[in-house]
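Researcher: Next entry in the queue.
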Amino acid sequence: MNYNYLNATLKAFIITITCLITLSSTKAQSSGFQKDTMKLSLDSAEHIFLRQNLSLLAQKYNIDVNKALEIQARLFPNPNLSVARGPIIPLHNPDATFFNNAENQVTVSQLVLLAGKRNKQIKIAEANTKLAEYQFYDLIRTLKYTLRTDFFNIYYLQQSASVYSSEISALQQVVDAFNKQEGKGYISQKEVVRIKAQLYAFESEYNDLINQINDTESELRLVLQVKNAFISPDVDVNAVAALNPEKYPFTVLIDSAHAARTDLLIARQNTEISKLNYNYQKALATPDLTLNVSYDKQGSYVHDFHSFGASMDLPFFNRNQGNIKSAKSTIAYYDALQQSTSATVEEQIGRALQKAFDQDRLYKKIDISFTKDFERLKNEVLHNYQIRNIGLLDFLDFYDSYKQNTVQVNAILFNRVSAFEDLNFYTGTNIFN
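Model: Structure for this entry, 433 residues:
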């Protein structure tokens, strides 16, 4: 008995059952979710994102919150009105009541903020609004990077998936032809098992690839806030091919990042807010002044007594020393973070630019005619195998090499465009669009 043959047959049977279960599960899932195909260009995807993303909408409301706080900071303190009448129980005149022969007091007071506290509050509120705007644009930068990267990733994964689909279809034709000839002795059982094993291996890899595409599409749908749609990216391959890492020198990229990168602007703004807060805390050490005007009827040696007064806390114990010291340390803290962010920006741009050059160099080594030869030979190899001009091993080796070549080329193409997207992200601009 040929045990190697039995082992090969058993392995093929197990793979067959596994793939059939997987495929039936996939069909069941597909039948449960009816989705339309949405073909999108990169520009249209970005327009949908800016219009529909809920995270951006929430951050816009945060800007409105801070603008409202600006309005509040500009308001003056309300005056205070105090009215008193008495005594409630007459003490020396039994005929007097609460409604006659009583004392009446009226006092109007106004708090006056000294040391420019109001203007300092306004500046802090305006700085916080600007910080919220920077945070909004930083969110756009981050989500747009996810959108663009997913967009190209889906495109190149779908290109690879189409090759798998084509090869699976071709192998299935061979298997169907073998099944028709089963029992006639024309084809060895070992050859049939080997073809089926290759087919099921391709189907398993194809299923993994489809799952990867679906996961990436799910993330992209969340960014776009669209539902029940398969996304089919429409990529301008000529524009992608024209990308050139030598377009901008390193110094220009650094200058662009320092001017436009929002997380660096946020770090600078936090430092500025901490300085404004330090000035405000020093101003709080100066007590505020309260002015008042009073009128008193029958409460003094003068029948109608008018007075003017002022009051102020004496800064003997509390001169806001702790808050001032804390605010000063906060300046040093945010200044260190700003320097760290600036150093990180330069390092990230340098690494991204190096990566772009490496990926572009690898891309230029791809022989386009080699890829086209694979496309042309694919059907010829299948035909020559069917008429027995080539053997099984040559046939399977070619199909496996064709699949690997296509997947590797698409990976190189995606890694190259991803490197340029990294440069866009790290500079905070769309210099490579």
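Model: The CA atoms of residues 53 and 223 lie 6 Å apart.
Researcher: Noted, moving on.
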